[in-house]
């Protein structure tokens, strides 16, 4: 068999998913494994969302609302925007794909940082576009270098804020200065997947920039129900943008892209702010506790504005990752991201956090890292 594969498709490396817990337990002979590698919500979805999903199961023979009208209206109220400024996606990933489909063709350039979310670059490769990659500077987006990299071929700039995997945040002043340094012909996409965990006092007023596009490029915000709302398995995300940009994305959006249970679950989750607030407060408490415990073990935790953070383990992070698997604890080695001595962990429940610290202490001692 000879397949007519285009070179830019053949060059794509598939996205590396985290190790599933059932696979870990089978392969390593452990039980009750915990997963702190994928930045998931350890408290799970809202009970209201679970009930709403269950109520929809008898209607699975029907197509979902192709416009997701009720959910779009609810998201708009949540964001303080208009409904025609919202585009829903099968995860915020799909909104990224819409943006690339709508604005990027062969030879067009897209600027991203490294490390950041890998899917930005993969969607550009699929379209035959050019990825212009700007390294982080001291674990932060190098906004000056990104601005300097813009040419007349640049169509999109993707900036995850907070950044994944570092958890760092762009200040309001730096973002405003950056935005005003750019030509109006580009679109600045700010991926705010983790913004729910950020103190509102330091968040960027994205909606203000979206609604006042004069003298600045178009701005798009990406949001998700996967993190703070605990609905990662449903795959629901959305973009907030100027209505003219939204209208173009709807031209490349497939109908029925948000399935029936997903629409019901996300709508109910927005109606359970008590559960949402418990997630935010539990994350903040756990992050503070974990950082102190990790430092006591001789490692260096890095400040984060998210539900995860980086840890310098003072040794080969991949070896530590593998040792932790035998303890039934899944973390993420950052070697592939250019940080060979770092792991990234998700803030879990208190029981999960305690188990992580206990396993980490044992593995550090066995490997001779930290204060061993």
TrEMBL record:
Please give the cofactor(s) recorded in the UniProt entry for this protein: pyridoxal 5'-phosphate
Q: EC class of this enzyme?
A: transferase
- GO biological process annotations for this chain's record? L-histidine biosynthetic process
- CDD domains from the UniProt entry: AAT_like
Q: A single GO molecular function, which one?
A: pyridoxal phosphate binding
Recorded metabolic or biological pathway in which this protein acts: Amino-acid biosynthesis; L-histidine biosynthesis; L-histidine from 5-phospho-alpha-D-ribose 1-diphosphate: step 7/9
Please indicate which superkingdom the organism of origin belongs to: Bacteria
**Keyword annotations:** Amino-acid biosynthesis, Aminotransferase, Histidine biosynthesis, Pyridoxal phosphate, Transferase
The EC number(s) given in the record are 2.6.1.9
Show the catalytic activity.
L-histidinol phosphate + 2-oxoglutarate = 3-(imidazol-4-yl)-2-oxopropyl phosphate + L-glutamate
UniProt domain Aminotransferase class I/classII large: residue ranges: 32-360
Q: Which residues carry this modification: N6-(pyridoxal phosphate)lysine?
A: 227
How does the annotation summarize its subunit structure? Answer: Homodimer.
Which protein family is it in?
Belongs to the class-II pyridoxal-phosphate-dependent aminotransferase family. Histidinol-phosphate aminotransferase subfamily.
Protein name, per record: Histidinol-phosphate aminotransferase
Organism listed in the record: Desulfobulbus propionicus (strain ATCC 33891 / DSM 2032 / VKM B-1956 / 1pr3)
Q: Which gene encodes it?
A: hisC
């Amino acid at each position: 068999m000879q397949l007519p594969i285009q070179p830019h498709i053949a060059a794509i490396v598939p996205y590396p998913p985290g190790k599933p817990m059932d696979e870990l337990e089978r392969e390593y002979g452990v039980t009750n494994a915990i997963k702190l590698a994928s930045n998931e919500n350890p408290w799970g979805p809202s009970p209201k969302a679970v009930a709403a999903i269950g109520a929809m199961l008898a209607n699975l023979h029907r197509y979902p609302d192709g416009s997701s009208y009720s959910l779009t209206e609810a998201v708009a109220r949540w964001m303080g925007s208009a409904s025609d400024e919202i585009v829903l996606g099968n995860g915020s990933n799909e909104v990224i794909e819409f943006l690339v489909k709508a604005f990027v063709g062969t030879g067009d350039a897209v600027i991203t940082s490294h490390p950041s979310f890998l899917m930005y670059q993969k969607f550009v490769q699929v379209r035959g576009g050019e990825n212009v990659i700007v390294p982080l500077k001291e674990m932060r987006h190098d906004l000056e270098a990104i601005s300097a990299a813009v040419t007349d071929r640049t169509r999109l700039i993707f900036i995850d804020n907070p950044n994944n995997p570092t958890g760092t945040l762009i200040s309001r002043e730096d973002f405003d200065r950056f935005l005003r340094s750019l030509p109006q012909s580009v679109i600045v996409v700010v991926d705010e997947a983790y913004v729910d965990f950020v103190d509102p006092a330091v968040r960027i007023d994205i909606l203000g920039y979206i609604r006042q596009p004069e003298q600045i490029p178009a701005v798009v915000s990406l949001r998700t129900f996967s993190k703070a709302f605990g609905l990662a398995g449903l795959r629901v995300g959305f973009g907030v943008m100027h209505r003219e940009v939204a209208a173009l994305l709807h031209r490349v959006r497939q109908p029925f892209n948000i399935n029936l249970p997903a629409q019901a679950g996300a709508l109910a989750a927005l109606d359970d702010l008590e559960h949402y607030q418990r997630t935010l407060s539990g994350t903040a408490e756990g992050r503070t506790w974990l950082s102190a415990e990790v430092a006591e073990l001789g490692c260096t935790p890095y400040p984060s504005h998210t539900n995860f953070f980086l840890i310098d383990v003072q040794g080969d992070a991949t070896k530590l990752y593998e040792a932790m698997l035998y303890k039934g604890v899944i973390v993420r080695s950052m070697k592939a991201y250019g940080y060979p001595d770092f792991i990234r962990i998700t803030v879990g429940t208190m029981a999960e956090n305690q188990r992580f610290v206990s396993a980490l202490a044992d593995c550090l001692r066995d490997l001779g890292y930290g204060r061993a």
